[in-house]
């Protein structure tokens, strides 16, 4: 991984660039954020993210996905996902995946289902795992008809279904498992 000494040098270089009148671009911020996350300096990564947005720069998909993946608390993931949307960016399938997983972790069933439908409406194809999150949410809301519908849709849309182990995907909607 990246150690703190190298990140310190990179951040000093950023300060030196600024002192010379150079303005960092979105790519520079991406690499700094990536280094901070790899070096487990997530607070600094978040600070650089805010700085980038405040400078009017548009983060790339990879930067957005990286920021979402680095957050362990579901509340922060959802807040960041909303921030990405407010910035006028179109979330990637990976970004939706992080948001859906965060909703499940936070037991935000309605939000999970709204985001799942939003993802499909945007033209992105959910993965089998994303379908599992949606089916889990429906099951928690005792909507077994929706679970069956989603399962059928998943079978039709996800070619990888046959490659995944059955216990992960196949469940009886009325079973007591989590």
Keywords:
disordered C terminus; 178 residues; 10 helices; mainly alpha
Structure in words:
The protein starts with a helix and ends in a 9-residue tail after the last helix. Helix 7 (109-121) runs antiparallel to helix 8. Mean pLDDT is 85; it is low at 162-178. 29% of the residues are buried. With 178 residues, it is mainly α. It contains 10 helices and no strands.
Round the Cα radius of gyration to an integer and report it.
19 Å
Tell me the number of helical segments per DSSP (H or I, 4 or more residues long): 10
Structural class by secondary-structure content = mainly alpha
The proportion of strand residues reads under 5%
How many beta-strand elements?
Answer: 0
Shape: elongated
Largest sheet: none
Weakly predicted, low-confidence segments: 162-178
Q: CA-to-CA gap between the ends?
A: 35 Å
Mean pLDDT: 85
Helix content: 55-70%
What's the helix-strand series? HHHHHHHHHH
Question: What are the SSEs and their pairings?
Answer:
Blueprint: H1 4-19, H2 26-38, H3 42-54, H4 61-70, H5 74-86, H6 93-105, H7 109-121, H8 128-140, H9 144-157, H10 166-169
Summary of the model, kept short:
This protein is an all-alpha fold and 178 residues long. It has helices spanning 4-19, 26-38, 42-54, 61-70, 74-86, 93-105, 109-121, 128-140, 144-157, 166-169.
């Amino acid at each position: 991984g990246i150690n703190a000494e190298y990140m310190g040098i990179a951040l000093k270089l950023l300060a030196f660039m600024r002192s010379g009148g150079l303005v960092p671009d979105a790519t520079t911020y991406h690499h700094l954020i990536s280094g901070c996350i790899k070096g487990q300096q997530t607070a600094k990564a978040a600070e650089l993210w805010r700085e980038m947005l405040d400078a009017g720069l548009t983060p790339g998909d990879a930067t957005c996905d990286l920021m979402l993946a680095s957050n362990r608390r579901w509340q922060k993931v959802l807040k960041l996902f909303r921030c990405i949307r407010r910035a006028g960016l179109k979330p990637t399938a990976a970004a939706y995946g992080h948001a859906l997983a965060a909703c499940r972790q936070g037991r935000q069933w309605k939000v999970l289902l709204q985001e799942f439908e939003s993802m499909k409406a945007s033209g992105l194809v959910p993965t089998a795992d994303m379908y599992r999150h949606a089916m889990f949410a429906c099951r928690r809301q005792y909507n077994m008809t929706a679970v069956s519908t989603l399962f059928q849709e998943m079978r039709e849309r996800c070619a990888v279904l046959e490659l995944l182990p059955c216990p992960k995907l196949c469940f009886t909607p009325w079973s007591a498992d989590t």
